[in-house]
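Tokens in:
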């Protein structure tokens, strides 16, 4: 009976670890084409996406990835490519007000 109890506890610990790791990997990806890029106001950048009027993203020049994202967004705009933005949380409503002024942007990908 003791062995069964240890297995139950071990199984519960493994299940908890798997659950914790899968929730830690939660993120949202939003695909957009870029309509315009605005730079100004002490380095502030606004990327405006094609689609709904509320589809834009503000990025501060203090962001560690600012220069890389500016270069990639510019390249996507000129070449009419799609960008995919990855946010650190699950459930971001892409193309809505919920996507503006986010501080949890963790990546950007460009593809055809």
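Residues out:
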């Amino acid at each position: 009976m003791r062995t069964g109890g240890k297995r139950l506890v071990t199984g519960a610990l493994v299940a908890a670890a798997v659950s914790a790791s899968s929730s830690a990997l939660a993120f949202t990806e939003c695909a957009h084409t870029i309509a315009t890029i605005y730079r100004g106001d002490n380095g502030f950048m606004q990327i405006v996406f094609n689609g709904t009027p509320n589809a834009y993203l503000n990025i501060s020049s203090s962001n560690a990835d600012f220069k890389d994202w500016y270069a990639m967004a510019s390249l996507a705009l000129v070449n009419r490519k799609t960008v995919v933005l990855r946010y650190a949380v699950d459930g971001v409503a892409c193309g809505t007000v919920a996507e503006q002024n986010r501080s949890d942007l963790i990546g950007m990908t460009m593809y055809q």
